Amino acid sequence: KRTSGAILSSFFWGYVMTQIIGGQLADKHGGEVVLCVSGFGWSLAILSITIFASISNHLVILANFINGICQGLFFPAIISIVSSRIIQEKRSFLYSIVNSGTNFG
Fold first, then answer.
1. Each residue of 29-67: pLDDT tens digit?
2. What is the value of pTM for the model shown?
3. C-alpha triplet 72, 74, 79: angle, nearest 5°
4. Backbone phi, then psi, for 57, in 5-degree steps?
5. At what angle are helices 2-17 and 19-29 packed, to 10 degrees?
């Protein structure tokens, strides 16, 4: 139970750490750049979890933590893109579609 708790919580520790930082990075460098970098890191972390599972639980925790960091950048980057590229009257509708789309996978 302790190992599974560490593996599961490692994602959320990484996720929580990057919410504010992600918004600042997206405003400074552009949401598109942050989104691409985080998507690449997110993909590598997911792929490495499957490889690391047969090697060490500590590596799985690290990969899951990195996955959380990368996924934590997603919503701030999306908000930055929507706020800089969409007119104010259309933002709430578009963001609601983007946000609801994440629930479908």
1. 998 999 999 999 999 999 998 899 889 989 999 999 999
2. 0.82
3. 120
4. -65, -30
5. 40
Contact 27, 80 (CB under 8 A): yes
Written as six digits, the tokens of 5 are 């708790």
Q: What are phi and psi of 30, to 5 degrees?
A: 100, 135
Amino acid at 15: Y
The full DSSP string for the chain is: -HHHHHHHHHHHHHHHHTHHHHHHHHHHH-HHHHHHHHHHHHHHHHHHHHHHTTT-HHHHHHHHHHHHHHHHTHHHHHHHHHHHHS-HHHHHHHHHHHHHHHTT-
Q: Do the Cβ atoms of 77 and 22 come closer than 8 Å?
A: yes
Q: Token pair for residue 76?
A: 């701030």
User: CA–CA separation, 81 vs 94, rounded Å?
Assistant: 11
What is the chain's Cα-based Rg?
16
